[in-house]
Amino acid sequence: MGSITIVGLGPGAFGLITLESWEKIKSTTILILRTAEHPTVEKLREHGIKFISYDNTYEDKLTFEEVYNSIACDVIEQAKAGGDIVYAVPGSPLVAERTVVILRDLARKENISLTILPGMSFVEVLYVRLGIDPIDGLTIIDAVDFDNLPMDMPTGLVITQVYNEQVASDTKLSLMESYPDDYEVTFVRNLGLPDEEIRQVPLYKIDRQPHIDHLTSLYVPPQKKETRFMLEPLIETMHTLRSQGGCPWDVIQTHKSLRRNLIEEVYEVIEAIDLEDSDLLCEELGDLLLQIVFHARMAEETGGFSMQNVIDGITEKLIRRHPHVFGDVSVLDAGEVMLNWDAIKKQEKLERTSVLDGVPKDLPSLMQAYKLQHKAAQVGFDWDKVGPVWEKLAEEIDELWEASEQQDREHIEEELGDVLFSVVNLSRFMKVDAEVALNRANNKFKNRFFYVEEQVKKQKKDWSAFTLEELDSFWNAAKRQM
């Protein structure tokens, strides 16, 4: 079994190769270059140093990942055959060098001795040329590895190995998902060489630059962002509000006293969704999150659970109930996903003995009716088609009419409940949530009534001065506008 020593050829100029790496290159009998497309290679030839390179591999493979894996596997095979190999890469071996990462993993599995010598990368030259202090944070990524790039990039970004116009174009499109089209970036080519190019260009022009090649990189400065808060400051703020010397109102609240607040916040979120108002939805989700943190804080005070327990619990549940994503289960469609979900829930809720268990008694009545009917339907207690549902609704309306004729208030209440229950069943067959539908109708009524109210105020009259027909004409005008 041979060995592998990985060295760096430096960022470009021959003088930037470390002395240790140069001595290793001169003394080896097997020198392999990832690519001979590097400024120092001419110096190797001048010193009579023989080498082989993997440049042909770039032509034979369809993707860069295939290229890198092929190179790493070949180096491993040569070492297994007994060769003591020096593998040389551009720059520094551990800066944006995918083949080194793969080689390190393979060598560990094959029990092959692998040594990595420190080297100078183009990043050190970049620091000097652009006046960047890495202590402020810097992310370095290969141009073909954008899947690992976070959308909300908190640091400056260096993108290496922008090989050609196609890679530059793909890089541009990926960056435009997070940055403005005209965001100013730095185009860098042949860094540290006599024909070095460094210039500022708008993002949308990076694939239109001349002479894009393997020595092309980009620097994307960090965006100036507004103050960002993680969840922890919210948790700490609520802790302060509930502590001695905090807010008197917050201190006296209990889980039960906040029930109505929680329900109201949920409905305000739904209203924002119906209005398709993104800013309002963001605000209302924050108000809802506050209620969750509030309840978690009160529970923590009594030793029940903490906000972290809430986060851990829901995260574990999501992973557990999505084995087709986080495990080895295969599904064909969303229907199979729901079957798996229900099966896993049954395993988790062994204490439930009735089909109808698990429907909270304090749900709004329409929502509770929907969930009860849905659970009964899951075991086959349901009509196969919507026709009988219409017939049942008509039957219940007739019975309500008869009860109203008898002027029996208790009977009327019972029959009206049956009508509403049947309407919910119809909504279920039509795949519409009755609670959401009624909430939407309420909002529609409010908006139209506001219009009628505005017309009354414009005429500076009292409500009693208008006939029902006149008010109805305002209502019809509102309907035409809304």
Q: What can you tell me about this protein's structure?
A:
By secondary structure, the protein is an alpha/beta fold. It folds into five domains: 3-120, Cobalt-precorrin-4 Transmethylase, domain 1, CATH 3.40.1010; 124-220, Tetrapyrrole methylase, C-terminal domain (Methyltransferase, Cobalt-precorrin-4 Transmethylase, Domain 2, 2-Layer Sandwich), CATH 3.30.950.10; 231-346, MazG-like (Helix Hairpins); 351-432, MazG-like (Helix Hairpins); 437-481. 53% of the residues lie in helices and 10% in strands. The protein is built from 19 helices and ten strands. It has helices at 19-27, 41-46, 55-60, 64-80, 98-110, 122-130, 165-175, 231-242, 248-251, 259-275, 278-301, 307-320, 323-326, 334-348, 365-378, 387-406, 409-429, 434-458, 468-481, and strands at 3-8, 30-33, 52-53, 84-89, 113-116, 138-142, 156-160, 184-189, 197-202, 216-220. The strands form two sheets. A five-stranded parallel beta sheet has the order 3-2-4-1-5, sandwiched between helices. The longest helix is centred in the C-terminal third of the chain and has 25 residues, at 434-458. The model has no long low-confidence stretch (mean pLDDT 86).
Provide key terms for this protein.
19 helices, 5 domains, 482 residues, five-stranded parallel sheet, alpha/beta, five-stranded mixed sheet
What CATH architecture of the largest domain would you give? 3-Layer(aba) Sandwich
Order of helices and strands: EHEHEHHEHEHEEHEEEHHHHHHHHHHHH
What is the spatial order of strands in the main beta sheet? 3-2-4-1-5
Look at the structure and give the CATH class of the largest domain: Alpha Beta
User: Considering the protein shown, what is the CATH homologous superfamily of the largest domain?
Assistant: Tetrapyrrole methylase, N-terminal domain
pLDDT averaged residue by residue:
86
Classification by helices and strands: alpha/beta
Number of strands: 10
Domain module tally: 5
Radius of gyration: 34 Å
The geometry reads as elongated
